[in-house]
Amino acid sequence: MKTKHTILIVGGILIIILAAILFFYPSAKIKAPTGTAFDPLNATYNIGGQNVTLVDGSSEIEATPGSASKIKTMVFGVPTSADLNGDGLLDAALMLVQDSGGSGTFYYAAAAINTPSGAVGTNAVLLGDRIAPQNIEVQNGQIIANFADRLPGQPMTVSPSLGVSKYFVVSGNELVGSAPVAAPGEHCGGNKANAPTCQSGYHCAPAPGSNLPFGDVGGVCVQD
């Protein structure tokens, strides 16, 4: 009888301790999920006006109803995690590759936005046909797709040898091309196509001590 009484006392004490923990430490409470897990490998992307839903990083659909020809789409390499829209959540930049059963193999840049309902894919922007993809990175909030392509006029039989970088930003849920974005103190401007521009809150100014013409060579990003 005494042992049973002791067990009841110990059990009561444990219940009181557990209740106190749950009351004073809300993080210990069991919480229902507030959103769907973010996974860019399981998202829908718009490629050439068609929505393509990836499952574990790939998709295979009929080219036309009843056709034996398949359109295969998959993620190339590993997505790069970064905050692409300034909301403090990690999104993803990635390359997609699509084979429609013909001679072409098309590569695209895309992004997946982190939302409470999971990963929302953007439109995919064409990088090229049968290029040599390298990687996709994020700098200063900007997506940079790096790859090798052929020189203008070269046939597809020639191996890609020209290094190319294409720049993109996320606007809403859309991926759009942009000029390179330079960080504070980095080079900006200059008399060339697609010259780097400064990120928000900074402007391009002549480099200190430089005697070169600012309009031709550019300068550095300084705070407004």
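Second entry:
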Amino acid sequence: MELFSVHEYREPLIEKIIEQFKFRGGKPLARLMAKEMIRMIDKEEISDVVFIPIPLHWTRKIWRGYNQSEALLMAIKKENPRIKIQTRGLKRIRKTAQQSKLNREERLKNLQNAFEWQGEEIPQKIVLLDDVIATGSTLLGAAEALKKAGCQKVYGLTFAYGSGR
């Protein structure tokens, strides 16, 4: 899986933006973040790609009030209406522990078999969208489910990357 990220998580401002966006009701930050992420999208090669946000388990979505990856995707779609999106096919089928509280080994185990494609026809090229990547376990777990369902190529796009403890 090819991965594209805009910023390094260790930058103090980026860390603050992610924390506010994810844990402190900072949904309005999605537009600012989307403007940065849209630079990573090659305008010529988006016609046959479908963008999919990393899904939250329904209980986490209720607790947080929104899916931060979906909020980012909707803001990106506003910036570039030509992109194709799919928000319902990929599901998180089991509740998992919060990744930010786990070490690398625990994160990898936590996301095993956590995702499943429940949509109709699987797109052949998908960009998985998330706010931040640490170990890659979330994106890899989702990509595995998509490939199992028949997707040919999966890319990852995140606002920030960091080292996964």
